[in-house]
Amino acid sequence: MKKIILMLTFTIMSAVAATAQNSTKFTLKKHETMKSETLDIQPSVTSSEKDFNFLEGKWKVHNKKLKSRLNNSTEWDEFESELHLRKTLNGLGNVENYYATFDGNPFEGMAVRLYNPKTRLWKIYWMDSNNGTMDENPVTGSFEKGIGKFYTDDIFNDKKIRVIYQWDATNPEHPIWSQAFSTDNGKTWEWNWVMTLSKI
Length: 200
Prior knowledge:
Elements: H1 2-19, E1 25-27, E2 38-40, E3 57-66, E4 76-88, E5 93-102, E6 105-116, E7 121-128, E8 139-144, E9 147-156, E10 159-168, E11 176-182, E12 190-199
Antiparallel strand pairs: 1-2, 3-4, 3-12, 4-5, 5-6, 6-7, 7-8, 8-9, 9-10, 10-11, 11-12
């Protein structure tokens, strides 16, 4: 398992080095027809490889997930899960394992986060047992005053969307992760998933 994670991390680092280098701009070539072709993401003044230190260890997670996204839904599913996180790459990265059960079937997700000391930005890559593939559009961003915001452009149900992952670590005993989609380049957002964590 350790060999697989090391190989995966090395592959991701190579891709990040080739695309990020000294630029803090995040360009998504596959969405050139969008009004905003480039996400120009700048790091906060305090951005650091220590930003995710609060998340180390094992957590119980209470999930509140919108049943239908971008469909004016107001119905939510609520369920419990677990999240385990450990540091890697001498603190420049971390690996998160997420465990849940959906419709009676076990589900496992994995997030790999990498901090680039040159751009001072984090990239977060997601993969899970439903698809067996890694995100082609990792979210990118940083923390400021305990709030982390990470953005990308993607496609959901054939719609071009902007995505935000937000971490609220202002209460490190109960950090909150949330996700939202926007169909108007970030002018308005639909928050579709909220996770509240408690230390195990």
